[in-house]
Amino acid sequence: MKLSLNTQIFFGALLGLAFGIILGHTAFPPHTRSSFLFGFDLLGKIFIDLLKMVLIPLVFTSITAGIANLKNSSESNRIWPTLIFYSFTTTALAAITGLLAMNFIKAGAGIDVHLFKDKMDAFAVHSMTFSNFGLSAISHINILTVVLLAVFCGIAIALSGQRSQGILKLINQLFEIIMTLVGWIMRLAPLGIMGLLAKLIAQSNASLLYDLSKYILVVVGTTLFHGTVTLPAILWLITKTSPWNFFLAMKEAFITAFSTSSSTATLPVSLRCVTENLGIDKNIARFVLPVGAVLNMDGTAMYESMAALFVANLCGVHLTLLSQVLVMLTAMMASIGAPGIPSAGMVTMIMVLQSVGLPAQAVAILIAIDRPLDTIRTVVNVEGDCIGACVVQKIVSY
Fold first, then answer.
1. Strand ranges (E), the chain
2. Cys-Cys link to 288, which of 170, 372, 375, 389 (CB 3.0-4.6 A)?
3. Which residues does 2 contact at the CB level (< 8 Å), separation at least 6?
4. 278: closest CA among 183, 147, 388?
5. More confident residue, 148 or 138
6. Residue 89: what are its φ and ψ, rounded to 5°?
7. CATH 3.90.780.10 corresponds to the domain 5-396
């Protein structure tokens, strides 16, 4: 009996976790361990690079066609404000939840900061302002740049009317071809996910994870609360969709997000899941998911807010209510357009710390434990985008 792709991915993830634990806690000879890690790393990189290969044309064709097609319907003028309001609301809820949890538990207080002095001293700090962040995003041609270009092209095609129908048909056909390629690439997902998880678990710093266990548990617990309570509640209240059915329909995308720690790399899988498993209109999904991957980063905003309070507790600094509001707003703004790649939040974390005068060198501590935490917040980022597609479709169809 041939196993389904979902089952293969699940077993691939289990094998990756098992191999990672064995490599990380067994006294292999250094050469043997390095060889295994190289092999797992190669499997993961091939899978990620193939997804990245189709990412730019996928985002461009999906948004362009989505806008051009929706422009011809009465729903089009309601999608933009609905998506923006949803993204702002859920991101704000995530950041506020994170701040409340950290204020209540006060993770980081009482830890001897000198334990991490070497890491902090060795970390080079570069000023990160909103203008620097914007210039960096443009210069690296990240997903935000592609989204903006696709939006303008979609509007131009829509306004051109019948003259651009040939171009629109071509873009729709290109999108279908790219999704076929995605289907082929996903056949490698079980091996790729196994390699990614094996390397992640094997290279985790167990002693540092233990030293910061309280902070890690707070972050994981709060992120899971947002992903299993807040977002599903919004889904059910607005669309009456069963959260359990939603999670079952999206499990392939969630496993991919967990293993890759990349919301953009997961985008092709998310598009396929919401359209095929949840029945979301293709035009809505093509527009909402890529744009949501830029605007709606709940997990990132929550983590950066919590990390700022953790650093304050670590340094014995009391942040006033006004300072915490500033942290929340800065984290929300910094999460917009942040590249959907592993540990991308660490780049903008410096900006959040600097906004309230906290030592940016503390990022050196966070980087050491960020990779395992990044897996969970990426799942929540992807979940928020997919629920956003369900919410937008429900509201615009009234």
1. none
2. 389
3. none
4. 388
5. 148
6. -65, -50
7. no
